TrEMBL record:
GO terms for molecular function: lyase activity; metal ion binding. This is 2-dehydro-3-deoxy-D-arabinonate dehydratase. Residues 72-278 form the Fumarylacetoacetase-like C-terminal domain. It comes from Kribbella solani. It comes from the Bacteria. One of its GO terms (biological process) is small molecule metabolic process. The keyword Metal-binding applies. Keywords: Lyase, Metal-binding. It is an enzyme of class 4 (lyase). Signal peptide: none annotated. The keyword Kinase does not apply. Its EC number is 4.2.1.141. It holds the Pfam family FAA_hydrolase. Belongs to the FAH family.
Amino acid sequence: MHLVRYLSPVDGRPIPGVRTGDSVAPLEGVNSFAELLRLPLAELQTAVGKVGAELPAAGLTFLPPLDGRGEVWCAGVTYERSRGARMEESSEQSVYDKVYTAERPELFQKAPAWRVVVDGEPVGIRSDSGHDVPEPELAVVANSHGEIVGYTICNDMSSRSIEGINPLYVPQAKLFAGGCALASGIRPAWEVEDPKNLGIELVIERDGTEVFAERTSTAKLVRQLPDLIDVLFLPNDFPDGVILATGTGIVPDLDFALTEGDVITITIDELGTLTNTVATGRAPFTFLATTNLEGTR
């Protein structure tokens, strides 16, 4: 089962629902994901069990699994591979080594709900960046009470060339049009037995040919997921919920860079697949600026 948002085939309204296999059923009595993520975990679990009539998933337009005042945040340098890659590319290597072992994790805001793209939509690379990579990440979904309610897939698109110049450029390396992609579905937390033992696979194709493929596991994540959520919520309120991407354990070698038209596919065991095609600059993402607080494009 996955929690999803989709456009009504009747009137185009965004509808929260439950996807099971090839069918989708609307949630009854819940009008948005923001409303759903305001509920305590026990009430949320009850709410997703109340659904209407099923309809075929084929032909529906699915939306990012976040709306209203929802936000996406990221944790950085949470895998040994990430620490090594950041140190390799950076002019200030020690900061990455220190944060990897520090008590306080690196956390940063990635995108508000309206900036998020979903499976099948393009992802972006900056026009002023010459070296860009995807970062496949397990994403933790928390309600407004700071409880973990589910998991999804995030592609934290990143400019290695900009961040490599100076770590203070991280906001520019991470926040840009099309820089944050989420899978369309959230797998409820009560259906995932061990989120710290999920395989993650990244495949990149160029002109129909596979140019990169690698697999890792969340077992290599050095932080505990509840600890990351606790640190995130300590100084912040998230009235409509938050999605926290937990860092990447896959980083291509320095001689690899994305180009326009590359197809990125991220698969996480038990969660599904996220696929996006690379586009350059702001123009391909003007549709995001029309997204309203209800999450309608």
